[in-house]
Amino acid sequence: MNRKLTTNSRLVNELFANYISTFTAFCELLNNSIQAKSKNIWIDIDYTLETEIHPLLIKKISVKDDGNGVHMSDIEKKLLDIGTANKDGGKGIGRFASFQIGQEIEIETIGYS
Q1: How many domains does the chain have?
Q2: Which InterPro entries does the entry link to (predicted)?
């Protein structure tokens, strides 16, 4: 299913300035898991093989958790509208900040209503 991202550009510009390092952006992803009341968070790092000629040492970073997901009826409002505060204490840019880490983001969620 194709979805479209929307943003509040003023808010994104203001908040994204805080994500000047990949570490800070990575922490935001972990914070998203914590805000989803996760009991467990799994971090997998897929490294490039030593025999490969590749410009990057890391191919993929995956952050998974068992927290509360987002129900299909809330995807537009909670996942695809970037720069809105959808959670208590949240800034609404965690998935946007992850572009500091990589060029492609894949979000999978399971939520119940």
Answers
A1: 1
A2: HATPase_C_sf
